[in-house]
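task queued by scheduler; priority normal; single chain, no ligands, no partner chains; default sampling; output format set to structure tokens
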Amino acid sequence: MNILYNSFEELARLAGEQGTAISDVVLADQAAQMEEPPEALLARMDADLTVMQEAAEKGLDPALRSASGLSGGSAARVDQYVERTGGICGPRFGRSLAVALAVSECNAAMGRIVATPTAGSCGILPGAVLPLLEEGRFSREQVGKSLFTAGGLGMVIANKAYLAGAQGGCQAECGSASAMAAAVLTELWGGSPGQCAHAAAIALKCLLGLACDPVAGLVEVPCVKRNASGLANALCAAQLALAGVASAVPCDEVIEAMRAVGDAMPCALRETAQGGLAATPTGIQWKKRLFQ
């Protein structure tokens, strides 16, 4: 079977019929399409997982700063706070936030990251899975395989809508990444393929309309902190889905709605740095300071 990746609901249906996870369906299809053994694709995904870990480590350096000075050090502050106090919502949640910030700050400092699905949203998926790997809740093999579910959803979103902030606003970047992370978390914690689809739908619809308004045109403010909030949104969506809460609107329709919302957005809110936070007095001052 050659999957076209134009419906996440279809991927969930196929997995349900086969009694497998969505990641198994995507892995088998990709192996067939690329004419490679599944083990080779799993090995490449494992290499990507290593890059995520290295990016998180670099981003957690308290001394890390971007060239602009707009970002750096936030991940370390959050991590240190959680170590001291346990955090408001517990150590795992706090560590997840720290990792999401760290990978995004690594990107802002020109570090090597995995675009999941974009550089601007690169911290959300690592923030979801790396803490689980660190504490031994799931094996490296389980986490690596689950990322094929994220990849399958990302391809569906790319085919039905878009992933770039310049096309659809930050909902297309952090919204898509949050949906991907929610689906992965749901699968890892034993959710059904249908629950994965509900988690993705809940996560994406909660970020519909999110503007892309980078201060001074740099992928730093508010991008870094939106990686943390996108991660929190993914955790919320996965928890709801695992508890049996369903999205009233199916995942594929949510993706189509995201495209419609993005099409309706003015260009000022699509990565041009002409509106939103970029157009605030402080945002304008930063632009002048950095480029004049």
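post-processing summary
- The chain has a mean pLDDT of 98.
- The CA atoms of residues 60 and 69 lie 16 Å apart.
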